[in-house]
Amino acid sequence: MDEINSQNMLQVGTILHGTYKIESYLASGGFGNTYLAKNIEFDETYAIKEFFVKGVCQRDGNSTTISVSNAENTNSFEQQREKFKKEARRLRSLSNSHIVKVYDLFEENGTAYYVMDYVDGENLSARLKRTNAPLAESDVRNYLNQILDGLEAIHNDGMFHLDIKPANIMVDSHDVVKLIDFGASKQQSTVGGATMSTGISYTNGYAPSEQMAQSYDKFGPWTDFYALGATVYKLLTNQDPPSVSDLSEDETEDKHLALPMPKVSEEMKKLVVWMMQVNRLKRPKNVGEIRRILQQSSVATSNSEETKAFSPHQSYANPVNDNEETVWAGKTETVETNEDKPEPEEEYLDDDSSSKNRNIIVILVIVVVCAIVIMIRGCGGSRTASNINSVEASADSDVAFPDTMTYADAGADTSAMYVENKEETFFNEKVRYTGAVMCDPDPGYFYPLDEAGELTFSDGRKYKGPFNRGRMEGDNATFIYPNGDTYTGSFYDNHFSNGTYTVKSTGEQFIGTFDSNGQPKKGAWYDKNGNFLQNV
Q: Compositional bias of type Acidic residues: which residue ranges (predicted)?
């Protein structure tokens, strides 16, 4: 860090709040300084963010107290400090493994501070600079799924991040993503139908038209999805995304997307284009829509050499801001970067001897691969639950509903109905199903509709979640085993897709993605206290 920046930061060794000792500098941006600090009572390491506006605040000599450069800026500084504190409170209210956790908030030295997780890793902007190459599409897909988990928690809490970009996506030494820097985030609030807010920052190339125009009433999850699409574009190409500043919101010619994405699968290209639509009404509306596209598309081959795994012993600035220009309420600030070169890297080798024992989970993770299609007799009569007849379906027969058939294909007599705890037999096994079903008189199927239902197997296994064309498929699903083991997350084609498997007997959890056989594919194991055990 250069001399000018260090002069505006607390000296190493400074004690904050009587508890935290400044160990080193992590970053200095336009609106804050970030330090590596240690809790002197418990010897725990944290990152501490200090509210400090460049050009407005100053710290003279060895003084810890900051002052505002002139009286005209005092009111603005105080307002922005309150927003800084709200940012901390919003982060503390969220509980998600992909969102940086805030532990403490206090005022001192004429400003405010909050204490958060220290992520031992690097942000994706720093990784692109380190490797000078695009990321492999398989890695981007892995990170995208984790980012979506974090965004879903944010959106479900009535918030928008509003500054998704590579520099605000931290990846730790176990390849786990953490979203950081919620300084631009916005809480949904309405007074008389009008959304109330002050100026919202944005980053050129990652901000959609409604954000650049500060049109708060048009903000929504789709605002974050535009930035997410631009981020994916950057990761896959290592090229800066185009700006929409010269295009209107209703622009129909997506000329800003007429850019090459070599060695990227067609499915991923289409997803990027969809998320980066200029017209917000044409973008995805929720996380589930994006997940479905990811699950339906096949993983493309790597678009470059795999980037080196970075060592857990390696220390990167946290967070490392890059030189992307962040605009705040009409004012442009250039965020400076610590350009120190990282230490030589090592391959991370997991020597956890308990990994062999965890392989037994494969037996439990494999979900019964069967289409939840119930063949019946007499489907064309009255649409009541009493008319459902139980027949056996051979385990050797193909009972999957045709993938190409649409509801319209099923015939004019096709209709929906609802059953509750209805017993049926398929694959020579008694099951009970609660939920909506579709009746197709030819060839005579009942199958779950594309909405949530409950399926209970005779041995006590239970699935609760959405269905798609008669298959267990969709987001926010739960699968419970008789021994108490549980899986929560998304399903695709009757298999675990992306979620968390919890072993009841030990409390251990696997968090990550699963292959087509229901086995852990990429992710990590954690103990019952959330401590890392091993990578997969």
A: 342-352
